[in-house]
Design goal:
It is a single chain. This protein has helices at 35-38, 42-52, 76-84, 97-102, 114-122, 179-182, and strands spanning 17-21, 54-56, 68-73, 92-96, 106-107, 109-111, 129-131, 143-147, 152-154, 160-163, 186-190, 195-199. The chain is α+β, with helices and mostly antiparallel strands. The protein has an 8-stranded mixed beta sheet with strand order 5-8-3-1-4-10-11-12, sandwiched between helices. It has a two-stranded antiparallel ribbon with strand order 2-9. A two-stranded parallel ribbon has the order 6-7. The N and C termini lie far apart (38 Å).
Length: 205
Amino acid sequence: MAISLLRDDLSPSQSDDLIHFTGRNSARRPDWVDEDIRKMTAKERLAAIVRGGRMKTFAPYGGGTMRCACFSEANPEHLSYLLGKRRYLPFGIVVTRSQVLAKGGGTVAYIHNELTLEEFTRAKLGHWVVRTEYDSDWTHEREWRIPWKHTQIRWDELRAILVPNTTWRPVPAGEELPELWVKSPIWVWNSKTSKAEEYAPGTLV
């Protein structure tokens, strides 16, 4: 079934860019993620995705058993906020709303009401819900998810790849760069200006 394209006149608070960050500046490691992934650094996780063209899927925290790929919607100002006050690291892949919709994804529901949460759970839709409480508000993530029955989801094309500097590469020096790196725009995070500088595909080779 064809996916209708969303309107292209998004409000200033919206973005077509959905980012999967591969790490945060935090000592906490999610115990619902495989141990081999927990042991990897943010740069190692991103390198693995770019080299293989696949990212692993996991059941989200508090979201039942359905595996998902998770992303945060971020315009330039919100990206600066996430990388600053929310301590995400500048390593990740960027896809578009249309790409997520085409794979059966969409936005999550941020829910506080207990009865509503139970209804989602009974319908086996817990993976579409993020629970919020007065001391646990995750709405800043503006999360989108792709429910996925397989352990990995393939990406042949990306909106961009987010990295911390122009020297970072997904493979050691001298090795052939992966196709996904060569054909994708590269966003390089500039911590001084708090902006991502975009480099055209094939520029950082």
